[in-house]
Design brief:
- The chain is 31% helix and 13% strand.
- It is α+β, with helices and mostly antiparallel strands.
- The radius of gyration is 14 Å and the shape is globular.
- Residues 29-87 form the NADP-dependent oxidoreductase domain.
Length: 95
Amino acid sequence: MEVKLLLQHQIRIPSPLLKLGTQGLEVSKLGFGCVGLSGLYNAPLSHEAGCSVIKEAFDRGITFFDTSDLYGHNHDNEIMVGKVIFDIPLLTLKF
């Protein structure tokens, strides 16, 4: 995949952290919006490709991911995010 080849040659710079609230939670200052992975604005990616993109973002220091049950069909977006970052027990919700 051409995009993957381009990503392999980029410099990895850690994302600065941002403290949320008063409980000591820190997340990357830069977040990753996952809506585009599930086809809300474009053709959806396969689960394999979507997971690969999320993993690449996580490997580059992104620890704040925006997902929703409304992104995609049958919770596809949440499932992709969960497959990659399943061992991080953090959840944010929005209404």
